[in-house]
Design brief:
The structure holds 2 protein chains of 2 kinds. Chain A is of the alpha+beta class. Chain A contains 7 helices and 5 strands, in the order H-H-H-H-E-H-H-E-E-E-E-H. Chain B is built from 14 helices and 13 strands. Chain B is an alpha/beta fold. At the A-B interface, helix 2, helix 4 and helix 5 of A face helix 7, strand 3, strand 7, strand 13 and helix 13 of B.
């Protein structure tokens, strides 16, 4: 497992924070997924060895939490999550979702073939008073209107080109 | 006079010039209450919190002081852990987001006071995956607090030491349930534990006594110790003391988060939130987050003594909403008007629960998919 030195440093800092090594499994999965975009079988075995766990017990955490992705569920460079739960739905979240599908040329629940964007509906993102909301990687966009999404689409495209340059 | 907010926890939030850095917090009196607390005995603080009547703001409304003072197993000899539950995921709820994103040091001060009161030297802050910026803000704030001596060894020059570890979730709603959260923190699938033991306060993380409190609950501790339980318990009404942050969303003029004492539904929805959208009428309200029973605005409600009251007269607090047959839960109020098809709206919430079922128990795992 050839992780970047900064990821390894984070991992070395994380493990001793917990009284029992196994508790570090979620933060380690976060660190690895942040670098690689998904959790490979190699990563599962590497984390298991690091934390004195059986690989099956790491895998069972990966499959439980929707955020952790295996190779066949790899997310695009820009992850767009549209909240679809009640308060956002009442304010027009599904219209925003439909419009983003068209404007981004990406099917809801899928990634674009070039791996640039993943578009998904998400369950309640806990910002119900400013719905509909969309989470783009780490940033939340609020009070969106289906008819006024050009700014958000530009932002997503800018992020894609920034990621391409990395 | 029209009903008004009483901002105590949100006093500084959204004020011009107020920022999340520690200097701004200390300039506004921050960490002074921690110094006051460190001069008290831990059990004095526990008794203050008990006397304040503070009830848990996460959902069940359990008296915080009873959890701290009466349920924690202090004889086991095992370490006691504190966990701040910031896995805010109940549909309609967005109060913890404000407290974390806009005033993180208030939460850290509340956690350290609570840790001191309960002889805790390691506290965890479990934050949901979908709040990556919140996790970042908290980590930076904890680092700032460590630099200033409010987290880590010998806090504020005392012999009390405590660490806070931010632990990010993985996008599972069930981690808001405290035993599911604990399993997840132990590095396992977040299946809620079979009871008994009934309370994590007796056997929780690593089977050690563990206090799990909501973000808003822990922030309240700062103000209880700051003003004293006698003053705090005069806010609100008996058994519903203090303020609560209500999250109002959906089809209403002014959706938002409002910190209020007990008031009627009419006062909250009209005086504070401006009433329905033009030309519409309110139809139904989910009062306390997605899993709470929906209330019909045209129904006449009856309390246990048989006294009848209208929807507008429901008191917006723990006991008031319980008297109407629902629960105040995590204080997430979703408002629907006459343009909404109620079965469709409830279908939306059922889809949430079908998606978020942890899969441990058959009736939920299979049944939630039937709708």
């Amino acid at each position: 497992m050839n992780l970047k030195p900064e990821t390894l440093a984070l991992i070395e800092k994380t493990v001793p924070q917990y009284p029992e090594k196994r508790s570090a499994v979620m933060p380690l999965l976060h660190h690895v997924q942040k670098e690689r975009g998904y959790i490979s079988n190699e990563a599962i075995e590497w984390i298991a060895e690091k934390l004195d766990m059986q690989p099956i017990n790491v895998l069972s955490v990966v499959t439980f939490f929707p955020y952790f992705r295996q190779e066949d569920q790899k997310i695009g460079k820009v992850h767009v999550r549209v909240c679809r739960t009640l308060s956002c739905a009442l304010m027009g979240a599904y219209k925003v979702g439909d419009e983003l599908e068209k404007k981004l040329g990406c099917k809801m629940g899928h990634s674009k073939e070039d791996g640039s964007v993943t578009l998904e509906y998400a369950e309640c993102l806990a910002s119900c008073g400013s719905g509909p909301v969309v989470l783009v990687n780490d940033d939340l966009y609020e009070n969106l209107k289906a008819a006024e999404l050009d700014g958000l689409v530009d932002e997503i495209e800018t992020r894609v080109s920034k990621e391409d340059k990395k | 006079m029209a009903a008004q907010e009483n901002r105590i926890l949100l006093k500084n939030v959204d004020q011009p010039g107020y920022t999340v850095d520690i200097d701004c917090y200390t300039k506004h009196g921050g960490y002074e209450t921690l110094k006051k607390a460190l001069a008290m005995k831990p059990d004095e603080i526990r008794l203050e919190v008990k006397a304040s009547g503070l009830r848990g703001r996460g959902g069940a409304g359990f008296p915080c002081g009873v959890k701290w003072h009466d349920l924690v197993d202090r004889k086991s000899g095992n370490p006691i852990y504190l966990i701040c539950n910031c896995d805010e995921s109940e549909p309609g709820t967005f109060k913890d987001r404000q407290l974390v994103h806009k005033d993180p040091h208030q939460l850290i001060e509340g956690m350290i006071i609570s840790a001191y009161a309960n002889d805790v030297s390691l506290a965890f802050l479990y934050i949901r995956e979908e709040m990556p910026r919140g996790a970042q803000i908290l980590e930076e704030a904890i680092e700032e607090a460590r630099q200033k001596g409010f987290v880590g060894n010998n806090i504020a020059g005392s012999d009390f030491s405590c660490e806070i570890v931010v632990h990010r979730g993985g996008g599972a709603y069930i981690c808001g349930e405290e035993t599911g959260l604990i399993e997840s923190l132990e590095g396992k699938r977040a299946y809620p534990r079979i009871k008994p033991p009934f309370f994590p306060a007796a056997k929780g993380l690593y089977m050690c006594p563990t206090i799990v409190n909501n973000v808003e609950t822990l922030c309240n501790v700062v103000h209880i110790i700051g003003m004293g339980s006698a003053a705090y318990s005069k806010i609100g009404r008996p058994n519903n003391t203090g303020t609560r942050i209500w999250c109002v969303s959906g089809l209403v003029q002014k959706p938002g988060y409002y910190e209020i004492e007990s008031m009627t539904m009419k006062e909250l929805l009209y005086d504070i939130c401006g009433g329905p959208l033009p030309g519409r009428k309110f139809k139904a309200v989910v009062p306390g987050g997605g899993s709470m029973k929906i209330l019909d605005v045209n129904e006449t409600y009856k309390d246990r003594e048989g006294k009848e009251f209208s929807f507008d007269e429901i008191m917006v607090d723990y006991d008031g909403i319980a008297a109407a047959g629902s629960m105040s839960g995590s204080s997430g109020m979703m408002v629907m008007d006459d343009s909404v098809d109620i079965p469709e709206a409830l279908g939306n919430l059922m889809a949430f629960y079908a998606h978020e079922s942890c899969g441990q128990c058959t009736p939920c795992r299979e049944g939630s998919l039937w709708t």
